Amino acid sequence: MAKDKKMVEAITSMDEDFAQWYTDVVIKAGLTGYTSVKGCMVIKPAGFAIWENIQKELDRRFKETGVENVSMPLFIPESLLQKEKDHVEGFAPEVAWVTHGGLEPLQERLCVRPTSETLFCDFYANEIQSYRDLPRNYNQWCSVVRWEKTTRPFLRSREFLWQEGHTAHATAEESQERTELMLHVYADFVEEELAIPVVRGRKTDKEKFAGAEATYTIEALMHDGKALQSGTSHNFGDGFARAFNIQYTDKNNELQYVHQTSWGLSTRIIGAIIMVHGDNNGLVLPPRIAPTQIMIIPIRQQEEKVQEKVEEIRSRLAKDFSVKVDMSDKTPGWKFSEQEMKGIPVRIEIGPKDIDANQCVVVRRDNGEKITVSLDEVEKRLGEILEQEQNDMFAKAKAHLEAHITDCTDYEDFKNTVETKPGFVRAMWCGDLDCEMKIKEDTGATSRCIPFKQEHLSDTCVCCGKKAKSLVYWGRAY
Amino acid sequence: MAKDKKMVEAITSMDEDFAQWYTDVVIKAGLTGYTSVKGCMVIKPAGFAIWENIQKELDRRFKETGVENVSMPLFIPESLLQKEKDHVEGFAPEVAWVTHGGLEPLQERLCVRPTSETLFCDFYANEIQSYRDLPRNYNQWCSVVRWEKTTRPFLRSREFLWQEGHTAHATAEESQERTELMLHVYADFVEEELAIPVVRGRKTDKEKFAGAEATYTIEALMHDGKALQSGTSHNFGDGFARAFNIQYTDKNNELQYVHQTSWGLSTRIIGAIIMVHGDNNGLVLPPRIAPTQIMIIPIRQQEEKVQEKVEEIRSRLAKDFSVKVDMSDKTPGWKFSEQEMKGIPVRIEIGPKDIDANQCVVVRRDNGEKITVSLDEVEKRLGEILEQEQNDMFAKAKAHLEAHITDCTDYEDFKNTVETKPGFVRAMWCGDLDCEMKIKEDTGATSRCIPFKQEHLSDTCVCCGKKAKSLVYWGRAY
User: Fold this and answer.
1) pLDDT > 90 fraction of chain A, expressed in percent and rounded
2) Chain region(s) in chain A for CATH 3.30.930.10
3) Whether A48 and B71 lie within 8 Å, measured CB to CB
4) What digits encode the pLDDT tens for the residues B41-57?
5) B124 to chain A: closest CA residue
């Protein structure tokens, strides 16, 4: 693969220091930039274009299921935040408070939304009267604020971008259906578009969302063997509806509480893309989500023949792909390094000799494979190569995931595995909070999820030896 | 035109009480909804879908000029806001202050961005070193907060959605060019997509943006004859660059300050759409921006023949248009009223008799025209009808604008015109702040802009009689 000393040297090897490698990639690939606003992020064009592609495709998938977009206020009055007990307990310690508007103190302080359940409930309580007003499948794309102590770009920041869906339904069955539907929308999106395999399941009560009856999650495994919660979907039952008095008149003219859900996916997923696919040359973007899919790098670009052919190929490819040409005055080797650092899925190398032979060389970013392609069929072959790359990236990530799942039935083995082998540990659990707490204390691993696909590894809880209730994925996590 | 007593009665006539008519339309067309967060907005699906269409088309036009999207923090540390003197003076009285993060008071309070010049400057100061780093043409779609005392949906609210572009250039010429370019992007977009004619010009020093060298504006005229500032573009020169020390090394290896611009368009423009095109039956949306362009309303929808034909027509039209069918159990008359209230550009009425005659009836929202269309050419004819409606709406608004511009060369005449004839008054001005202040005090009219297209109405200032410098559009405004 192309090397350029100066650029490659600037990145820490992921095997030496994964955290530093991550920071280096984020900066060198131009995803985030400097800000003096502590704990907050500047997302630069290369990073934001990834988020735009995520938004576009996820929004399309939402709308296919009947979701509509809305915009809710940024602020939540303190009294509103306090209406649902578990919810306020979960969020109050980490919200930012607005106390002054203009030159005057506010009569009631407002928090900057950490999530918008209370705002949607306040709205739905006024909006929903009859069964005819249901369901409501609303979503918003916005930013939220949580006052984190330690922050890292994309993974944890005081403000982050996300979408939050908030739905209201006539029955408990419908809200359960919507909760699971959206989890699968997330899972399919992340697997198909981002080439990241996920484990789908339910959170334990300890790990569920503040105020939810049940939280479902997709869990991905990063290259370093740590888990990343990548999207969650919550069923609230009628808990919020009772706290906010959201009632409707049913067909028999009787008052009923609505049943609600919420679900969110954030810019955190960009952290997952980096940590699942990246390598020591930088970012590696899956073709389906890459803002630029093809970078054409001319050799001897000063020659008119090269310029003409490059422009011809660019314009042919631009019909089906997102393609750019690097005509800067850098050396080809430097351009190769930059294209690799930015994670652009393929580059096309083309010079006078290639043109004479009516061909170009396509280099895949994920595995460095060089493919000689006839210029007659450049559109068709690029389509095939990018599709193959997308599939191979998913297969590679899936193989990595599967190679990093260990089943344990014995607690010593469990502790030793968490300590020595990065990845998920699958083990049976009795369902008691005490065991969950003990495992976390002993190993640093938390319950990631109770997977939908249950298996029976043993009769007893890996921790306490009592009768086992469920198979659980455990792991250290971001 | 279709009437339905109950719905029509619910709207105040625009001639009786324009302000109440506006509020009624906003609510009855489902654009905004209830919130207990004072001065803030809930934008419901029908309203947000308009904004999504605005975003999509405007973003496309931005990107054609080389603009890239980014995301900047929501918060501005107080010390950062204070770096540019005019800017802080303009905005400090109306910002919301965050003083606590989680349970602890902040060391330095943060304001919620009222606009992001200071954040972009802070970023550019670190990002830009060489002439190779220029220009930077960045934009973000976000919400901003200004602590307004009196608020109205879309027109003035404490939080509103907008885009803000912030660019940095090597030379004063380039920043002037970009400032004007973006103003024309706004003007063309508003005229071509929203069918709203605008006056393009420069703001007086009194009316310009806090910290700008020059502010350019597009001014639209509402149905009631009041002006609405609909988009602005600012040239900062090197003022902010000096305050924030944003310097680059030029080709001669000398340090230079960058030159900057910013430009914004907000959800306020939705207020303009309502107030330019709306009528006593509700909202009227220009076809190019309408989330639903065609509503099919079946007559005798219980008949299988009708259902089949309606579905056939819907699926044929769905290839080129955004089309819906109203199959609810309401009467056709009720459905007509609803379609009119929501401003859907055309409805198609189709029943058994129409089907037998191989035709349907298309009713235009803007003028009530009924057009019989053969089912054989429904796609082609609908395309023509919608295009004609778009053009006619623009022509009608332009005629209204032109009929509400009065030229005055005498101050008594000027005062009388502002008082008795709604609209713009064109008059010559000496350029002195005193005259501008006096005119505002005497009449309530402010200088809307110094139009690009200058004319010579008289030799002297309409107010003081001194030598005139420029032609100015004056008017009462939202």
Assistant:
1) 95
2) 5-277
3) yes
4) 999 999 999 999 999 99
5) A34
